[in-house]
């Protein structure tokens, strides 16, 4: 079995973010999660740029519990439904200044509703992320 693809995320709800992280395994490993714009603007560009010493204000993601030499640089960034498009654009641009080839994937509230979810349903959110990631590959 191949190693999971490391990803980072920006969402607003820690419980939902962790539940989605669990459901993306074993294919995708959310190594770093941010819960607000200020943290994401500092942490994500540094991490995607290869700085594995990057602090994790939320303490979420698999990198949070690993020593720096075992941490992974994410290959794509996931955005939750509560993240406005202007924030997605700002964070994506900041990350791409460090790592130009990085992909960003956003799951909107409408995506979740269309997939049969009512509210922030981690099972449906993970399913939609998987579908969108596969579509872009």
Structure in words:
The chain is α/β, with parallel strands linked by helices. It has one domain. 42% of the residues lie in helices and 15% in strands. The protein has helices at 14-24, 37-48, 85-98, 109-114, 122-136; strands at residues 5-10, 28-34, 76-79, 103-106. The chain has a four-stranded parallel β-sheet. The longest helix is centred in the C-terminal third of the chain and has 15 residues, at 122-136. The protein is globular and about 40 Å long. It starts with a strand and ends with a helix.
List keywords for this structure.
4-stranded parallel β-sheet; alpha/beta
Query: What's the alpha carbon Rg, rounded to whole Å?
Result: 14 Å
Strand content: 15-25%
Question: How far is it from the N-terminal to the C-terminal residue, by CA?
Answer: 19 Å
Low-confidence stretches: none
The helix content, as a percent range, equals 40-55%
| Shape type | globular
**Total helix count?**
5
Indicate how many domains the architecture comprises. Answer: 1
Care to count the β-strands?
4
The sequence of SSEs as H and E is: EHEHEHEHH
Derived from helix and strand composition plus strand pairing, the structural class reads: alpha/beta
Largest sheet: 4 strands, parallel
Whole-number average pLDDT? 94
Strand numbers in spatial order across the main sheet: 2-1-3-4
């Amino acid at each position: 079995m191949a190693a999971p693809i490391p990803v980072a995320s920006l969402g607003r709800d820690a419980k939902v973010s962790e539940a989605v992280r669990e459901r993306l395994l074993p294919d995708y490993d959310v190594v770093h999660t941010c819960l607000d714009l200020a943290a994401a603007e500092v942490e994500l560009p540094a991490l995607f740029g290869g700085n594995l010493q990057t602090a994790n204000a939320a303490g979420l993601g698999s990198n949070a519990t690993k020593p720096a030499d075992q941490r992974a640089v994410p290959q794509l960034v996931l955005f939750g439904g509560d993240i406005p498009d202007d924030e997605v654009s700002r964070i994506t641009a900041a990350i791409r200044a460090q790592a130009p080839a990085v992909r960003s994937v956003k799951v909107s509230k409408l995506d979740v509703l269309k997939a049969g979810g009512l509210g922030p349903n981690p099972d449906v959110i993970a399913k939609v992320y998987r579908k969108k990631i596969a579509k872009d590959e």
